[in-house]
Design brief:
The chain has 354 residues and is an alpha/beta fold. The chain is 33% helix and 19% strand. It is globular and about 65 Å long.
Length: 354
């Protein structure tokens, strides 16, 4: 696969990841088991009249995409590709509640129209007056990677030279209550012990919107390059090392060539077993990074992980708040990102400096 270049970033998350350099104002929430977004000033990006009718996922997606386009110094793109696991779940809840409360009569269509998974991509396109290719992937915890893979293929086939790629998910009260009942969310937040040292099931949940402008041509302002993306539905835990080895070999790399590995630890003891093998054996002598203790777990949290990996290359530093071990390197040229959830939907993303 050919390289594509990340030329713009925009991230709205449970941390202050805008108007800052790289997580210098971040802190671990040691109280809540559902993390809320750190809101930007929406009126600086969206008119107050329009903003009132938008769900938070839509607003965060518009802001994050705007920030990415500004950094890339672009006004429009050849394609908009988004990934989301739950879509605009807040409006879905509003519409379903209205059905019950009104005995299926006299329903207004607004919440239904805005509840579809492709609402974010559509609203971004309307704002940009972009009538090009616009697609949303709803594919569990590889939704974002599916969007990134599609963008990469489009450029390799010369169907686009610039693509806006993003991952968006939001929380909603009723859905979160169901997740609690199902045991998906932890009963209590134990701080950092809820992640790397967890002996329980469930996660600390979150939400966010992260966008990237990727382009076919390298620019003087390019931040990083995406070398390869691979997704798998199922992978046995004892096959991980071999699979990563073959993934790296297909890009003419070995384990020793990886300057840092970004792992999707989420605090669920069964899910994290996949990462611990890599931490303790395969990449024991490699700088290791995690991020879901800051963002929370959600279907497109891996987009936040790619933002972290890209910022490491851009700043050539790893903030202490995301370090798993104390190993450092003088330069960070090649970074591997690995994410999965509950042993399914595995993704490998390889990025490098330009």
């Amino acid at each position: 696969m050919n390289k594509i270049y990340i030329n713009g970033l925009g991230c709205i998350s449970t941390q202050k990841t805008f108007d800052t350099l790289f997580l210098e104002e971040s802190a671990v929430n040691e109280v809540d088991t559902i993390l809320s977004i750190h809101q930007p000033v929406y009126k600086e990006f969206i008119s107050p009249v329009a903003s009132r009718r938008m769900a938070k996922g839509v607003k965060n997606g518009i802001v994050a995409s705007t920030l990415a386009l500004r950094e890339a110094q672009l006004e429009t793109v050849d394609a908009i590709i988004t990934g989301t696991g739950m879509g605009c779940i807040e409006d879905s809840e509003k519409f379903l509640k209205a059905i019950l409360d009104n005995n299926e009569e006299f329903l207004t269509p607004t919440s239904f129209i805005q509840s579809t998974h492709n609402t974010v991509g559509g609203q971004i396109a309307l704002g940009l007056q972009c009538k090009a290719y616009n697609l949303t992937y709803v594919n569990g915890s590889i939704s974002f990677e599916s969007a990134l893979f599609d963008a990469k293929m489009m450029m390799e086939e010369n169907d686009a030279s610039s693509v806006l790629v993003g991952g968006i998910d939001e929380t909603a009260d009723y859905t979160m209550s169901l997740f609690r009942l199902a045991g998906f969310i932890k009963n209590e937040n134990q701080g950092l012990d809820s992640f790397l040292k967890s002996t329980t099931k469930g996660v600390v949940f979150g939400e966010g919107a992260t966008f990237f402008v990727v382009e076919k041509e390298k620019k003087a302002t390019s931040i990083a390059a995406v070398l390869d993306v691979e997704i798998l539905n199922a992978l046995e835990i004892d096959k991980i090392e071999n699979k990563i080895g073959s993934f790296l070999a297909s890009n003419n790399l070995k384990f020793i060539d990886i300057d840092a590995v970004v792992l999707g630890y989420n605090g669920d003891m069964d899910s994290d077993a996949y990462y611990k093998i890599l931490s303790e054996v395969t990449f024991a002598n490699t700088p290791q990074v995690y991020y879901k203790h800051l963002s929370g777990e959600y279907d497109t949290a891996s987009a936040f992980g790619l933002w972290v990996g890209t910022k490491i290359i851009q700043t050539q530093s790893i903030p202490d708040i995301v370090k798993i071990n104390t190993i450092d390197k003088e330069t960070y040229k090649t970074i591997l990102l690995y994410n999965q959830r509950n042993g399914i939907d595995h993704s490998f993303t390889l990025i490098s400096s330009c």
